[in-house]
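Let us work through a complete example step by step.
Step 1: write down the sequence.
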Amino acid sequence: MGIVSFILFACAVALAAAMVGRVTAQDWRTASQEPVGLAPDPGSARDAIIQVYAARVIGWRGVFGVHTWIAVKPAAAAEYTVYEIIGWRLRSQDTALVVRHRAPDMRWFGSAPELVAEKRGAGVEELIARIDTAAHSYPWAGEYTMWPGPNSNTFTAWVLRAVPELEADLPPTAIGKDYSGKKLVGSAPSGRGFQFSLFGLAGITASAVEGFEVNLLGLSFGINPFDPALKLPLVGRTNTLFSWFPSFQ
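Step 2: predict the structure and record it as tokens.
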């Protein structure tokens, strides 16, 4: 299947998914923020833990994108620390960076989170220290743009680039992950491989973690032969659609 046919097919599937209404409208004041059981109990899990999460954002924007965050728990800690960017904080503060203790796997205003990556045990303490350093050196903490970035996904990708050992493959719905400011060439959001990005609006990514991705106006299309899956805007990462391509079996 040629690249043009693939893109047309991907667009058709993505639009079909949007039409059936993947995200339901709800009031952010009453939306659930309960944990979903993806994070080990910090009271009984004595090893160091790092987890990366993604969840659909609230309202119509959730059709297109997710919010991502990073949670850490040092071996001796009795609670998790979560690092994330929350754009509306800029209405009252001079930074959108939020570092706080909370359940790492809580629903994001009703949307159940997906566990993107996890590291536990030996060597994780050192990675946690690097995450903290990278988070506090994030250069766009004082600004936020939903599209094409910098936003919450730009922040997560910034930290992941500093800690490539996590090998985190952010979903294609993490709009903003490809934004890198004026830097046009660098590593992929996972910190591995290569990326060319034109202000998050267009670019290509190739790495052993992400596979191959094309960014068009902030929407990501891709294929990962290393961890077999197709990557589509709106739909996200899917293994089911990958099986429709016999040549990749």
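Step 3: interpret the result. Confidence is low (pLDDT under 50) at residues 16-25, 245-249.
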